[in-house]
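Field log, afternoon session.

UNIT: design team B
ACTIVITY: writing a sequence onto a fixed backbone
BACKBONE:
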């Protein structure tokens, strides 16, 4: 797949071949525990002396806008407050800023976050070790001036508004103001596109209500602005009486940099029946002073393509102005003096048109167009340029400087647009549209008036629950204050920096050696059977990568997701069948990708995992509103299902992205999951299945519901060190340990009472051992429990967990010997194969570890898929690939991969 594929050229420098590379076999060792059992210990991280080796995910980039990442540390290895320094492979110090991301229970550092400035550390490998970090030549500084916040990088100065309707007051380079009056803008209309009546439109401005300095150097500054969109009335901005869509805007600047990164996120709280977003973006003014023929517009295309033209075009005329003029117009450099031009051009050039307005429109994932016109009173020339997938970069300015501006995931999250208006005047208005006004309005209404039943459409019938209020979406933007029109090569480099941001990562051995994220293995290709297992993971990820492209799984709200189940009769995924459509990371598809990345370091897998986590955390989850802290089960529309549960939104699967990239917005998402405790008072998961009870304020299943809450609490505890969250885990553990049936407690798959105030669980004394525990461990409940019992020492709960793991897949004779009777837990073999193997690892019982592998291998859902085949001709609209195995499902892909990865860690000696 080339640059026209799902990811940019840079992403595939590593390619999926990396996932198939030979990696040393990992052998688990037994260790003594408080319960006098044994379990698996991790391998030692790769040797970098006393430090950690790091590298750029896709190889050393040509340019960066700065970089941030996280590094894990083994328990007790690095104490809080330890200084860390960064050097290149050649020994050159790199200025570094570090901060804690998470702590082990003993107070030592578990994860640290790090940032370097733009265009720093551009060597293949880097080394992080204890020591005093180098200081930048000029540190970035942050000052509060009244409500305003001023950031000085040494190369530019940024003034942010802490209140009012202007978020970005100015961006200056030297004595020149490159941009000013930056506003967040919103356009709404009150009717959908096809409505018979004329839609009324309104304009809104993002009014700033708060500014918080989160980091202030020396290498990186981070400022968080907050506000709401306020209705514009008359000629004024944001002075109306209605507010909508709470938003945050994080602004990042690094020492010595001429670039600014902005991360905008909004929460939907509108009325889907009458609020239709027509446009959403950032609008700035760019002062211009160069002559029209020395003012230039740039747009980036695919394959490093560049569209570049001046405001007044001198090439292609009936009379040639001269080779030097033609070359300067093409390259974006200053032309020779007018007096040096050919006489006829010199005397008549002012009669030539001034191209005032320019637009790049990406209304779908397959094509974009460049338009230009002389004024709003005249027509657009819509054939100025065209291509397939624009990386989302533009420029307006002249030989004395200008503004480059970019938007990440540009074509993937269509409809997008880059607008330039007034380029022939004293100031151009630039708008980066994260939702383009040049396409249809955003429509968040449900796809039908009611649900269609679990038995047929696999869809919960809860009218009014397909509610988008509380979901969110984010957009990453970049601005550059440039001293001149960039060369075409430089502009193409900047486009790559936007479309595939450079990411520093550690090696799989480093992640694994720190013993983070539970039990997982490095690739093992020591036998033919294990090669086949590893190849099945690689082939599955490659298949989904192609499916994203072939099935066009893109769009503002949909990008990052995949589909749930295939319809072999129609040769398509069940995009229109209730709960079989969008996957919403059902059964851990996001975790499956993250574990695959951690063990291989593959860049393509990283991009898939990152996009999926971002999608699930925004489109499928609720940051606010009546479902705050919960997420939506899979459906035709992302948020459309009537089932709202904590398992969809649990923090465990967000931790991968947060700790690997140190991205602050992910931290916001994880903290928002803590609202689920109180939301469960209104919407308990089993309210439609079991009769009401007065034995507790609410009710949930131990798994996956309580496990999801545990992951939220565990994450907040390790991030902050606040033991209140640990104590909530301990409370539940001790309660479960008192239940006679332990983790086999409860009807409906494990129902117990729950009090969000105290975190106590209540035995409802109904349905013990009756089965239905198939989903208890399906949403990474096993990994959550495996990890938390190593962090929280509650021996009585560990015993209960071990008892459950030991007997959940045991034959009848063993259950009768243990309990005096037999029962059927009704669990999926593949999901519980690693639970059984964990019991074998804990008890040092080879037969149990072997049983885990047998459960996987005897389960049809656990068998690797056959190779994909192409379907073409009249059976399909366009050629596609599918698995020749009937109605295959993403659930099987995710759980099979997770099982292989865990079993190789828990039972390596018993592996085939």
């Amino acid at each position: 797949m080339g640059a026209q594929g799902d990811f940019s050229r840079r992403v595939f420098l590593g390619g999926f071949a990396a996932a198939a590379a030979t990696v040393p076999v990992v052998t688990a060792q037994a260790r003594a525990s408080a319960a006098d059992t044994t379990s698996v210990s991790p391998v030692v991280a790769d040797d970098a002396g006393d430090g950690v080796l790091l590298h750029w995910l896709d190889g050393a980039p040509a340019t960066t806008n700065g970089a941030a990442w996280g590094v894990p540390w083994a328990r007790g290895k690095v104490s809080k407050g330890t200084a860390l320094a960064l050097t290149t492979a050649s020994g050159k110090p790199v200025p570094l800023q570090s901060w804690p991301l998470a702590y082990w229970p003993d107070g030592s550092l578990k994860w640290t976050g790090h940032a370097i400035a733009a265009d720093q550390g551009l060597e293949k490998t880097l080394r992080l070790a204890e020591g005093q970090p180098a200081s930048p030549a000029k540190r970035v500084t942050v000052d509060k001036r009244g409500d305003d916040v001023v950031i000085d990088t040494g190369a530019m100065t940024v003034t942010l508004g802490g209140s009012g309707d202007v978020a970005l007051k100015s961006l200056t380079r030297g004595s020149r103001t490159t941009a000013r009056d930056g506003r967040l803008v919103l356009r709404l209309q009150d009717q959908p596109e096809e409505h018979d009546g004329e839609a009324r439109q309104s304009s809104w401005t993002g009014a700033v209500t708060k500014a918080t300095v989160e980091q202030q150097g020396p290498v990186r500054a981070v400022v968080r602005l907050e506000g709401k969109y306020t209705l514009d009335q008359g000629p004024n901005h944001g002075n109306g009486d209605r507010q909508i869509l709470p938003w945050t805007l994080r602004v990042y600047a690094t020492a010595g940099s001429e670039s600014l990164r902005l991360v905008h996120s909004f929460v939907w709280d509108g009325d889907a029946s009458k609020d239709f977003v027509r446009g959403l973006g950032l609008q700035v003014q760019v002062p211009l002073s160069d002559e029209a023929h020395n003012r230039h517009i740039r747009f980036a295309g695919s394959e490093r393509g560049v569209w570049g033209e001046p405001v007044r075009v001198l090439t292609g005329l009936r009379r040639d102005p001269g080779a030097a003029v033609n070359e300067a117009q093409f390259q974006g450099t200053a032309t020779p003096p007018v007096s040096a031009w050919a006489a006829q051009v010199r005397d008549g050039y002012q009669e030539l048109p001034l191209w005032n307005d320019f637009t790049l429109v990406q209304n779908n994932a397959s094509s974009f167009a460049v338009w230009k016109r002389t004024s709003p009173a005249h027509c657009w020339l819509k054939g100025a340029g065209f291509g397939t997938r624009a990386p989302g970069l533009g420029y307006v300015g002249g030989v004395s400087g200008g503004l480059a501006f970019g938007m990440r995931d540009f074509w993937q999250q269509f409809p997008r647009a880059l607008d330039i208006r007034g380029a022939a005047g004293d100031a151009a208005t630039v708008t980066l549209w994260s939702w383009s006004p040049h396409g249809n309005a955003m429509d968040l209404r449900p796809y039908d008036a009611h649900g269609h039943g679990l038995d047929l459409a696999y869809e919960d019938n809860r009218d009014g629950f397909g509610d988008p209020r509380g979901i969110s979406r984010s957009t990453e933007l970049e601005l550059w204050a440039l001293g001149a029109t960039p060369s075409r090569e430089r502009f193409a480099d900047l486009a790559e920096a936007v479309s595939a941001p450079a990411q520093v990562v550690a090696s799989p051995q480093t992640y694994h050696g720190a013993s983070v994220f539970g039990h997982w293995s490095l690739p093992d290709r020591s036998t033919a059977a294990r090669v086949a297992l590893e190849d099945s993971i690689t082939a599955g990820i490659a298949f989904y990568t192609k499916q994203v492209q072939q099935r066009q799984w893109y769009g503002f709200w949909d990008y990052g997701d995949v589909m749930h189940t295939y319809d072999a009769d129609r040769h398509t995924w069940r995009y229109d069948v209730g709960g079989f459509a969008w996957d919403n990371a059902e059964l851990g598809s996001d975790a499956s990708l993250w574990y695959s990345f951690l063990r291989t370091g593959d860049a393509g897998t990283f991009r898939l995992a990152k996009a999926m986590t971002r999608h699930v955390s925004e489109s499928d989850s609720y940051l606010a509103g009546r479902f705050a802290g919960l997420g939506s089960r899979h459906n035709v529309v992302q948020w459309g299902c009537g089932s709202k549960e904590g398992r969809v939104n649990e923090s465990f699967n967000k931790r991968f992205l947060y700790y690997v990239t140190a991205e602050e917005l992910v931290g916001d998402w994880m903290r928002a999951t803590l609202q689920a405790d109180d939301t469960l008072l209104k919407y308990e998961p089993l309210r439609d299945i079991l009769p009401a009870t007065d034995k507790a304020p609410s009710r949930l299943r131990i798994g996956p519901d309580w496990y999801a809450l545990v992951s939220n609490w565990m994450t907040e505890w390790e991030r902050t060190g606040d033991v209140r969250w640990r104590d909530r885990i301990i409370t539940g553990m001790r309660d479960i340990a008192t239940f006679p049936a332990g983790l086999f407690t409860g009807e409906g798959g494990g129902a117990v009472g729950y009090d969000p105030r105290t975190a106590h669980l209540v035995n409802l004394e109904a349905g013990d051992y009756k089965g239905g525990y198939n989903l208890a461990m399906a949403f990474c409940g096993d990994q959550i429990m495996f990890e938390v019992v190593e962090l929280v020492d509650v021996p009585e709960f560990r015993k209960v967990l071990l008892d459950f793991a030991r007997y959940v897949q045991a034959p009848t004779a063993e259950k009768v010997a243990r309990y005096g009777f037999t029962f059927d837990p009704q669990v999926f073999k593949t999901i519980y194969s690693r639970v059984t193997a964990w019991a074998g690892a804990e008890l040092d019982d080879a037969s149990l570890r072997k049983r885990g592998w047998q459960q996987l291998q005897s389960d049809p859902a656990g068998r690797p898929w056959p190779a994909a085949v192409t379907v073409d001709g009249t059976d399909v609209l366009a050629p596609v690939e599918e698995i020749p195995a009937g109605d295959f499902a993403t659930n099987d892909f995710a759980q099979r991969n997770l099982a292989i990865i865990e079993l190789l860690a828990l039972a390596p000696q018993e592996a085939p």
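LOG NOTE: The CA atoms of residues 277 and 886 lie 40 Å apart.
NEXT ACTIVITY: expression trials, pending approval
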